Amino acid sequence: MTSLEAVSSYLPPAIPVEELREPLGLTDQQVRRFTRLYGLERICQAPDQSEAELLLAAAGKLEALAGQEDRVRYVVRAKGLRTTAPYPVSPLQQVREALGLRHATVFSVADHGCATGLLALDVAGTLLAADPDPDALALVLAGDKTFTPFSQWVEDVSIMGEGMTALLVSANGPRDRVLGYRARIIGRDDGVIDLDPEGAREAKRIYQDVMADVIHDALADAGIGVGDLDLVLPHNVNRVSWTVAGKNLGIPQDRIFLENIAKTGHCFCADPFVNYQSARELGLLRPGGFYLMTSAGLGQSFAAAVLQH
């Protein structure tokens, strides 16, 4: 059963949203909305660090990787964005070389937006389950560099941070086992993911219902109900969306981990894993307890995973 052997994250220094007013062209009203209503006070940014440097900073904190490099059969790059570096630069290949993982199969998964991190975890688990070596491991790298102006914020929804995470995944670990996973994409026929006015209205209309459906499907896959969850580790899109979601799902607000929204911004598909590490450091995950990771991304992609600590 797919398990998290270890998780590490790297969060670059955070700056106040107010300092992004000019770079992002924010109005006074938008600054107030992001900070006072959405709870996005500070955003992780690393203007002097490349994507490869950010990923290596996260992987470098993964102590469980040291000495086990030969067991890593797969390196899976979870990308919320398709393009995060100028051609022909390949940050993933740079990371592979720096970590000494030349023997591993290396590839990226994308096109699920900020739900791609959970997709990558599922893909890693699927590959490991089929691998003849029961001791094989996968390294999943999640998070994105805000390489273009398009990637720096989603208008009136969230502001993107550059935090990164590294996950060491096994097929049969003793804890943090994935019991259920479900994903869904409600895409457009033309494949466009930009939030034009029409697309934004449709996204807002379906968001809560589809997210709830995907969460319930993942819970059913795991054989448990909402009331069995100790904690929800969401994507850090904004505080309002999770206040509404909690009410819709019947999950008390104190079981939804929202502490990082004010500290990091929305770090693409790395959010659930950043939140996992924070929750574990705070002692919020009890042995044997159930918790939920969930995300949504541009293009109306949704994902949820149920794990047991």
TrEMBL record:
UniProt xrefs under Pfam families: ACP_syn_III_C
Q: Which SUPFAM superfamilies match?
A: Thiolase-like
Give the source's domain of life in one word: Bacteria
Which Gene3D superfamilies does the record associate with it?
Answer: 3.40.47.10
Q: Name one GO biological process term.
A: secondary metabolite biosynthetic process
**Keywords in UniProt for this one?**
Acyltransferase, Transferase
GO MF terms here are:
acyltransferase activity, transferring groups other than amino-acyl groups
Lineage of the species this protein comes from: Bacteria, Bacillati, Actinomycetota, Actinomycetes, Kitasatosporales
Ranges of residues in domain Beta-ketoacyl-[acyl-carrier-protein] synthase III C-terminal: 219-308
> From which organism does this entry originate?
Streptomyces venezuelae (strain ATCC 10712 / CBS 650.69 / DSM 40230 / JCM 4526 / NBRC 13096 / PD 04745)
The protein in question is named Beta-ketoacyl-[acyl-carrier-protein] synthase III C-terminal domain-containing protein
